[in-house]
Amino acid sequence: MHQLDDCIFCQIANGHAPAYKIHEDELTCTFLDIFPATPGHCLIITKEHFSDIFEAKAEALAQVARNSVLITKALEQVIAPDGLGVYQFNRACAGQTVFHYHMHLIPQFEGKNIGIHSKQAGDPDELAALAEQLKSVLP
Ligand code: AMP
Ligand code: ZN
Questions:
Q1: pTM greater than 0.90
Q2: What is the pLDDT of residue 6?
Q3: Ligand 1 pocket check: which of 6, 43, 130 to mutate, most ligand atoms within 8 Å of Cβ?
Q4: Does residue 24 register a pLDDT over 80?
Q5: Which of 24, 93, 117, 125 is an S-S bond match for 29, by CB 3.0 to 4.6 Å?
Q6: What domains can you pick out in the chain, each with its CATH number?
Q7: Lowest-confidence pick of 72-81, 114-123, 125-134
Q8: What is the 3-state secondary structure (H, E, C) of 44-81?
Q9: In the annotation, is 41 catalytic?
Q10: Are the C-beta atoms of 116 and 104 separated by less than 8 Å?
């Protein structure tokens, strides 16, 4: 599987960098965004390094899509948001900042106009507790 030593998401996928992981399978890995736009902000990545959708293999992206349903159900159980934003950016001009394919799942709440990127790091204890809760409701 193609991975890069200097890519933070490859390092998370292969366990060489820490992350609040909540789910993984052969093709994908899901963890909490450390700069959450809202509590429960998740990233689903491919384990193989694809910079973006221009490079990605359809099979891996199909698994990302399948797991987005699974993770949404876990977020619904644990966070119960009013809505959910699903975002995915490709290349810098489209807003991508980490150049390893990933999909954002961002819980949304009535009356709050939330952006996609936060400048504030999440509280490590809160992230760890939330990751445990989400893991406990995932297969
Ligand atoms: P983008 O490439 O713009 O779609 O977004 C990249 C996202 O990755 C941002 O929301 C960052 O907060 C998030 N991020 C960057 N590094 C990490 C990390 N080590 N662990 C978790 N999330 C990260
Ligand atoms: Zn990578």
A1: yes
A2: 96
A3: 43
A4: yes
A5: 24
A6: 8-136 (3.30.428.10)
A7: 114-123
A8: EEECCCCCCCCCCCHHHHHHHHHHHHHHHHHHHHHCCC
A9: no
A10: yes
